[in-house]
Amino acid sequence: MLALCTSYAFFEASSGRLTVRASLDLPLGGLPWSVRGIQCESPFTTDVLTTCLFKIDPQDVQALLVAHDFDERPMPGILANSRFPLPTGFSAPVCHVANPSEFEHGGHLVVCPDPSVAVALLDLYIE
After folding, report:
1. 44-83: string of b/e by CB count within 10 Å (b at 16+)?
2. I need a labelling partner for 4 at 20 to 30 A (CA). Which of 18, 32, 48, 55 fits?
3. Do the Cβ atoms of 71 and 97 come closer than 8 Å?
């Protein structure tokens, strides 16, 4: 497992801008080694609002769900409001949703995988 707590910078060739992220700490407990191509966006607000899109081998999705009690439910709004262009054919009819108790004032952690394209969308909100 690979923990996701990192600092990084990347250059977006399409917009010609440099984006720097000071810290990204997702409360997943760890990431499988198959996770790659991580793209995250986290606007600067008083709340934590982070959205990530990444590739993952379909058999490794369950490893993302061990740190919290996740429920399965449809979350079409999460997909419709993604800050990233989703891959052609991306469809996640069921997402995994947790409301971790350590989010003292509320929030959620949502993982929406699509095994057919080996991609997952993650949405983190902490009040």
Report:
1. eeeebbbbbbbebeeebbebbbeebebeeeebeebbeebb
2. 18
3. yes
User: Do 50 and 28 touch, CB atoms closer than 8 A?
Assistant: no
Phi, psi of 6 (to 5 degrees): -150, 160
Q: What is the pLDDT of residues 109-119, one digit of tens each?
A: 899 999 888 99
Nearest in space to 62 (alpha carbons), one of 9, 8, 21, 1: 1
Domain extents in the chain: 29-126
pTM of the model: 0.74
- Collect all residues with Cβ–Cβ distance below 8 Å to 2 and sequence separation of at least 6: 30, 31, 32, 33, 35
